[in-house]
User: Fold this.
Amino acid sequence: MVQIEDTFMHQGMRRKLVAEIKQKGITDERVLEAIGSIPRHLFMDNSFIQYAYIDKAFPIAAKQTISQPYTVAFQTESLQLKKFDKVLEVGTGSGYQAAVLCHMGTTVYTIERIKALYDFARNLLPGLGYRPQFFYGDGYLGLPTYGPFDKIIVTAGASFVPEPLKQQLKIGGILVIPVGKSDYQIMKIITRVTETEYSEEDKGGFVFVPLLTGLSD
Ligand code: SAH
Assistant:
């Protein structure tokens, strides 16, 4: 059972974090509200509490990272979420991004290739009131039997855009994915315009852990 403790101190630290990412250019109030509400410290090891509310990525288990809050906010804002959107997340990691998506009233499917992280997030989120559907699998393939999705977010750096993810977008749907080399990726915002046509926009540089194929164990 996870110890859920969210004190005035944590809430105060979150308000500062929200002010910081707002200052960096995030304007969607619903995104800012989600970041201001979710206890990010519970997604990290207890001993790293002082790092939970600074705007930096941080190591979690299995050599992965919980994304930088600004990056979470940027990707989430780029999805242009509407309440009840059906959203696929590739790369559950700590589950923090999935919590942000749930908080915004969307129906979330999240997939992770490392069993320990899949287990961690699956144990943590329901206690916080967030109930995405968790999948242990290879996100390169998406979730063909659950699609199509209104929105797809990939939270690991891909070397190319996986075709199954494009195929699992509804028409008018948006895919947000960092694409590039292992040490630097460009955030691509891909919209499915018609059955066969997609539009693509590049939105600045980021650094994510790599999107890998297959299961880790
Ligand atoms: N969204 C996460 C970020 C985690 S880092 C959070 O909020 O904490 C990216 C995650 O993507 C890692 O946990 C990594 O194991 C996972 N990942 C990498 N390749 C994957 C794949 N093909 N399918 C599913 N998950 C993958």
Q: What stands out?
A: The longest strand covers residues 169-181. The CA atoms of residues 45 and 60 lie 8 Å apart.
